[in-house]
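Listing S7. Sequence submitted for prediction.
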Amino acid sequence: MLPYETIVKAAAGEPEAVNAVIQNHIGCIKYLSYLQGCINDDIQDHLKAQLVEALTRFGFDR
């Protein structure tokens, strides 16, 4: 599990924190990118981009 501070920094756009979040979810990203017997790089890149986009919309006021 990622520390709260890392998530806050990633939401603010800090590159190292964003990379830490991506690396934390890389297993799921690779699993979801699996297509016809191999990992599809286009799908993997798309999922990473969606994760980064979701970080920018993450609300901390809940």
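Caption to Listing S7: primary sequence and predicted structure tokens for the chain studied. The mean pLDDT is 93. The helical segments are 4-11, 15-24, 26-33, 41-57.
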